[in-house]
Design goal:
The protein has 201 residues and is an alpha+beta fold. It has a single domain, classed as Lipocalin, CATH 2.40.128. The protein contains three helices and twelve strands. The protein has an eight-stranded antiparallel beta barrel. The chain is elongated, with a radius of gyration of 21 Å. The relative contact order is 0.19.
Length: 201
């Protein structure tokens, strides 16, 4: 009986240690954003009629997220040319204001985000590169471990004027300066020890 209890306790502790290190403890993992599924969207209000303007891109992110000692950091890059609002003429006006031929992408660099367990919701800070300008952004992040991956959602506001962007206008409606950005995705993760053991090509 004592042997059975000891074996059971050993198995329990072993499984607990594995679970703890899957996304907590001293676990270290990497997520290649290009191998996941993601969507970038923005929401703004037009003036003077307060029309809601929504745009999105399912083109997907490039970049990485990485956990080192329970803190997630990394960067994501996406194509501005892939943004769409559902009205082609408005899209052309928007991309003219963004000067997508000159500045085809935008990049978000994250400051470390505490991630001690399998799920967290907190504030975050990062550096956004947009339209040839750099600025600090602050927002809300949700991270959740999902089997062999990570589900992530970032939401933050920006002001177009801070990035030297002329507000797009369409049909006598001009987008207000403040725009809300959302980034959401599911990304496969891989232990950094596995990456280190992989042969280089």
């Amino acid at each position: 009986m004592k042997k059975t209890i000891w074996v059971g306790l050993t198995v329990f502790l072993g499984l607990s240690f594995f679970s703890f290190n899957a996304f907590g403890g001293k676990s270290r993992w990497n997520a290649d954003l290009s191998k996941g599924e993601s969507e970038i969207s923005f929401d703004g209000i037009g003036r003077p009629s307060f029309v809601h303007v929504h745009g999105k891109s399912s083109h997907g992110l490039q970049g990485t997220l990485e956990d080192r000692d329970n803190a997630v950091s990394g960067f994501g890059v996406f194509s501005l040319a892939s943004l769409e609002t559902g009205i082609s003429l408005r899209d052309r006006h928007m991309k003219t204001c963004l000067e997508v031929e000159k500045y085809p992408t935008s990049k978000l660099m994250l400051f470390p985000i505490a991630f001690p367990g399998s799920e967290t919701q907190s504030t975050f800070r990062g550096t956004l590169e947009l339209h040839g300008q750099k600025g600090i952004v602050n927002g809300i992040v949700k991270l959740r471990a999902t089997g062999n991956g990570l589900r992530a959602h970032f939401s933050f506001p920006i002001k177009l004027s801070e990035f030297h962007i002329v507000a797009p206008s369409f049909a006598k409606i001009t987008l207000q300066d403040s725009v809300q950005i959302s980034v959401e995705g599911n990304f496969p993760t891989r232990a950094l020890s596995d990456l280190a053991a992989s042969p280089t090509k």
